[in-house]
Specification:
Layout (H helix, E strand, L loop, with lengths): L1 E6 L2 E6 L8 H13 L6 E6 L10 H8 L8 H22 L5 E5 L2 E3 L1 H7 L3 E5 L3 E3 L13 H9 L1 H10 L2 E3 H6 L5 E3 L2 H16 L3 H14 L4 H15 L3 H12 L9
Parallel strand pairs: 2-3, 3-4, 4-6, 5-7, 6-9
Antiparallel strand pairs: 1-2, 7-8
Length: about 260
């Protein structure tokens, strides 16, 4: 359903199912919470081994398992559904809160929950065959797993509203035009290769600096510039006395590539 492995500080997270049944969400959360505990982790690449990145929520499985929650009921039933939604949201929040950059390598369809998932990633790359859709409106649902909250900062409010209101499909080229993906590659294999090449570039940098950049960026979202500047000043006041900075200076003087340890 979702698997992970780590090599040379780069984690590979592989989605092994075309849709997301209810059991997908706790599995996803566990994977990313476990990765977050890995002090040696430097970057994550997430991709799918299936014909598509994800067709989104497995509606038959969801209605079979949770159908009674959608059919009225009193306060207890409504409360259970609310708790379920919160738990599923936490699965993708675990991706957003991963302390290192997460790169999504998308091929084929990326629909509904798939788009919720990649919107929680730091960087998105796509193959030329990728298709994206925020399709919940077409099945009488308000998207509730993060797209409506995260996409405005990625593609802007106008594009987000267009996709959400219409439920339309967009191809990889359009996704790049609006800033949903950084680059488009000819094949799924080329997309994954590009994702790992970028991950290797990131992993070669000081892990303290990369983790710090992510934390500073996240802190600054929606805050006044002065508040964000004060935060990064405080961060650097604490972390500039690192072994990594000393290694950077030594490598510069010795005209060699630095070898960072994250200390």
């Amino acid at each position: 359903m979702i698997e992970s492995s780590v090599k040379d500080g780069i984690a590979t997270v592989t989605i092994t199912t075309k849709t997301m049944p209810p059991s997908f969400f706790p599995a996803c959360r566990r994977v990313f919470e476990e990765l977050a505990e890995d002090a040696g982790l430097r970057c994550v690449v997430i991709h799918s081994s299936e014909e598509c990145f994800s067709y989104g929520l497995d509606l038959p499985a969801t209605f079979t398992e949770l159908g009674p929650l959608f059919a009225g009921g009193g306060a207890t039933t409504r409360g259970i559904l609310l708790s379920t939604i919160h738990a599923w949201q936490a699965s993708f929040t675990a991706i957003a809160h991963c302390p290192v950059p997460v790169i999504a390598a998308v091929h084929g369809w990326c629909v509904g929950g798939g788009l919720d998932l990649v919107s929680a990633c730091d960087i998105r790359l796509a193959s030329a065959d990728a298709q994206f859709s925020l399709r919940e409106a077409k099945v009488a649902i308000v998207a509730d797993l993060g797209s409506l909250q995260r996409l405005p900062a990625i593609i802007g409010p106008g594009h987000t509203r267009e996709l959400a209101y219409s439920g339309k499909d967009i191809d990889a080229q359009r996704a790049q035009e609006i800033g949903l993906v950084n680059t488009v590659h000819p094949t799924p294999e080329a997309t994954r290769s590009a994702a790992y090449a970028l991950a290797a570039e990131i992993a070669a940098n000081s892990p303290l600096a990369v983790r710090g950049i992510k934390q500073v960026l996240e802190f600054g979202e929606g805050k006044p510039i002065a508040t964000a500047l004060e935060y990064v000043a405080t961060w650097n006041a604490a972390f500039l006395a690192s072994e990594d900075l000393a290694e950077a200076a030594a490598a510069f003087m010795e005209k060699r590539a630095p070898v960072y340890t994250g200390r």
